[in-house]
Amino acid sequence: MPEKTNKVSLPEAVNNCTGDAAKVEHPLESLGEIPTTPVWYASNKAKFDQLAKAFKIAESDIKSAELSDKYENGILVPAVNELRYCSYHVIKAISANNAADQRDQLYRGLRHCERASYDALELGLTTYLKKIDEFRAIYRDKNVVMSKVIPGYPEDMREASKAQALLGKNFKDKTEIFEEVREYLSKIKDIYLKFNEAEDDLNTEARQANQSLKYTKLALAATVLIAIAGWTKVFYSPSPQIVPDAVQPANKAKPITTIDEADIGASQPADRAKIDAPTDRTR
User: What domain of life does the UniProt record list for this protein's source (predicted)?
Assistant: First the structure.
């Protein structure tokens, strides 16, 4: 990891020099001529050493960001521009006519180096956070519970959330937190590498989860089919006809048979003839 620089309290005018989107703080025509023998004032020697160290760190941060991003996001330009502005102030410092002006230019160059580091570190951190989200999405779609495979997974996600929150804060000057961003970049990069190392185990878990899900779906389908068949049988089978038993009235009286003459005549013709025959009284 690159060596940390010592933070320097800079004037407000120096702070405004970073992020010169309008390019009004670095006019080329103001550079003037470089003296034949540049003067380095003894009182500024430590400041120049600090600036040189910060420049090397910023250059290293930019190279690391290039490797992590592989130009996918294409936002390394701001960091590179900050180093360009640093060079501008180094030239101004060489051309300074007094120690105070030279010290001011060295301060400005140092601030640009810190801002270049922040822009590069932010890019690296954003890139690794994005890769972690993509990694999680892949295995979430495969029904993998990542905490079963990756040790310390919940803690890793908490660290990722803190890193995301840090990038979301609205700082007046990003150089105030560039060392903190560097620390989180190291953590998040390690988390991403740990995820990559667990890829084979995650794929194994994905296959098992897929097989288990397939069996569950088959069992559910079979259960639904059996239920449908049962309900179909109940609703569409013919219902048996229920014939109620004949109800016999209590104390039913026997029918009274009425015999009239017609009945008698029809049933006993011989006896009827005897009745109707006249009696011979003369015998």
Answer: Bacteria
